[in-house]
Amino acid sequence: MTKRKLAAAVLLIMLIAAAVMWFVLRPPQSAFEQPFSGDTASAELIGKGEYAARVSDCVACHSTPESAPFAGGLKFATPVGDIYATNITPDKETGIGNYTLADFDKAVRHGVAKDGHRLYPAMPYPSYIKLNDDDVRALYAYFMHSVKPVKQPNRESEIPWPLNMRWPMAFWNLLFVDPAPSTSRPGENAAWNRGAYIVEGPGHCGSCHTPRGLAFNEKGLSADSKYYLAGALLDGWYAPSLRGDANTGLGRWSEEDIYSFLKTGRNEHSVVFGSMTEAFNNSTQYMSDDDLRAIALYLKSLPPGVNSTDDSWKYDSSTASKLTVSERSKHPGAQTFIARCSSCHGVDGRGQAPWIPPLAGATSMLVNEASAINITLNGSDRIVAGGKPDAYRMPPFRKQLSDKEMTDVLNFVRSSWGNTGEKVKQESVTELRERTDPASSNVIILQMR
Q: What is the pTM of this model?
């Protein structure tokens, strides 16, 4: 290679490196770069911000039962290491007290902190990017003027080097974040568009309910994708499809069923459990009826997704014969079901709606086994509706049942009354037993004040 060609190659490499550095380090644009001339602290704006924080469920990730509101510290287990939620109180040393409205916007909608470091998408900015300017401005007013400052240093992530480098997130965002703002869809009414805005934006429902790719990206971010809200495995739970799937989603639910579930935590089909309990306790029950009905309208409009099955579940009464005294011993798990499950869920598997859900036709008994195993092992957290703790909760059976007994009873339930769930493997029960803990029987309310 001649000196001229070598110099040209070096120059090209330097130009490419400079372009990469420019792309990685350039700050995102904010709609609030110019100082806002309006009132940033009116009671009305702060109140709107508090509501937006409820819809966005900020408290669930940035608080712990032991901490002050929004002081951070909650651990997130990721496939590459643990990370911790940050302090988002207006403390000037350890929180966001020095953030301008533009700084706040860049963090919430673009995943870039004030000092320029990029946030991991455990912070659901791929959804929050759809927040409109009014809601961002209101959120800022609420956090700066209504949340009490708390001096609590942030914990460093436990992701090892080089995986903990933040700059590659710029390229991840380029590939997997849709920068288009939320817009009304022509041909749909105002309620549908409001529901789409909440679900796809501040509600960040896709963070749990959308399957992820190899780069841990959500495979879809809006109703335009057949993957969006199609169901996903997350941290030992299976978040079911929120689309029109007959068995694995909301195909058998009416709009009223969805509204009731989000408003009260229960309906004739199900009761909130797992991660959805936190979403209900801290977020959905505080939403207005109009917003909840808008969400229901939007979700019911979604066609079946990629995880849909063809045949709709139908009740099969023949299971009753397997539960007679003379027949139980012939069917593994039947005796355990009678002894441990039938008094609440009924010998017919139909439950006692709306307080105790049915097992017959339950989504958790028709799809991925994780939720069925997890709730049987660990029970459910307390539902707190309208400030009143629920008297009915699924107890943990990890001390009462062996892995073999639990496997047998789950396979019995998942193959009874018309249920068609895949067979549970005993090693799956063993694995979840080792890496999960029983749900708390205490009443856990995360305060926003």
A: 0.93
